[in-house]
From TrEMBL:
It comes from Thermococcus sibiricus. InterPro entries: G_OBG, GTP-bd, NOG1_N, NOG1_Rossman_fold_dom, P-loop_NTPase, Small_GTP-bd. Residues 168-335 form the OBG-type G domain. It holds the Pfam family NOG1. This is Putative GTPase, containing NOG1 domain.
Amino acid sequence: MRNPFEKMPTILLADEIIDKAFRRAEKAASAFTPRGNIISKARQREELRVRTVSNVTRDSLRKVLDRTPGVSTLPPFYQELLDTLVDKRMFHKALASINWAIKTIRGLEERYVEKIRYSRDPKEIAKLRREFYGRVASILKDINDNLEYLNKARDVLKDMPVIDLTLPTIVIAGHPNVGKSTLLRKLTNAKPEVATYPFTTKGINVGQFEEHWLKYQVIDTPGLLDRPISERNEIEKQAILALRHLGKLVIYIFDPSEYCGYPIEDQMHLFEEIYEEFGDFPFIVVLNKTDIASEDKIRKVEEFLQRRGIKSLRIAAEKGIGIDELKSKVIEIIKPEMEAIARSMGKTEGE
Ligand SMILES: Nc1nc2c(ncn2[C@@H]2O[C@H](COP(=O)(O)OP(=O)(O)OP(=O)(O)O)[C@@H](O)[C@H]2O)c(=O)[nH]1
């Protein structure tokens, strides 16, 4: 799946829509040669103006609705993300106001066309058309704040990371500088895709890799799973929730060399927090930078994990040491899921 907001158009604001609609109506009226007596001509010309203004306005607004996915139609991951990036309620309200404007303008169009058709006075006919213009303009101005809001939301949402929701997803966690991006690069052949999020200055790294003929995905979210929960704000908590919807497996990285700048005691503490938060997930714990870490520190971390009944794997991501073994472990855990996907794909193809 691609970013569901990718196709969201630039949204014209009230003044721009009004200008465009009125200009089109004048153009249509000047190119049109009405027939009949003076009353009939006035009726035809003004009806054309009213219909054109209504059509152009409603088309502009409908385009926004058509190309913007409704909140409730999105998978949970994107719903959480939406709420993290923009206010889901405001977003929903803005779309609803556009819907309201379309319906109201359509209703007014019918009423004014009818009034114009019944009027016998060219002056009154022109006045009715002006009145209709005024009402359309005021409806658009009423929803202008919402249009502005959607435009801002669009700028944020169209840059959402392209994360494939159908792929089994591995979430990488651990303190900054322990080697998360290095490991992601080693696990995935692809150049990690980086998209910026407001909750992290660095963006999110996504890489995919293929084993046999099935793909899976590795995500590293700097700023999210690398600090104690007490330091996280609401937005970050929500983003973690989004990760929970998506992830299938957590790879937790320790850096027993402490070159990352965090003593192993801090790392153990953070591990406990993440382990609790993702308690229902399978975990693979790796000890990175074993090429430079002291055996003493490595042992300390291993013993800490063993006390909790957790096995760990020694690696040195930069040198590629232990990566194959790690991949096998990943496959072992994810394989049942991959097979299920393969079965469902086979089924669809066979049908
Ligand atoms: N000696 C050694 N250095 C490593 C190893 N893995 C990563 N590094 C180094 O550790 C530093 C941090 O690695 P990153 O992969 O950027 O760490 P990160 O966890 O992604 O960092 P943030 O994105 O800042 O959270 C870099 O200078 C790497 O070159 C390793 O196995 N051995």
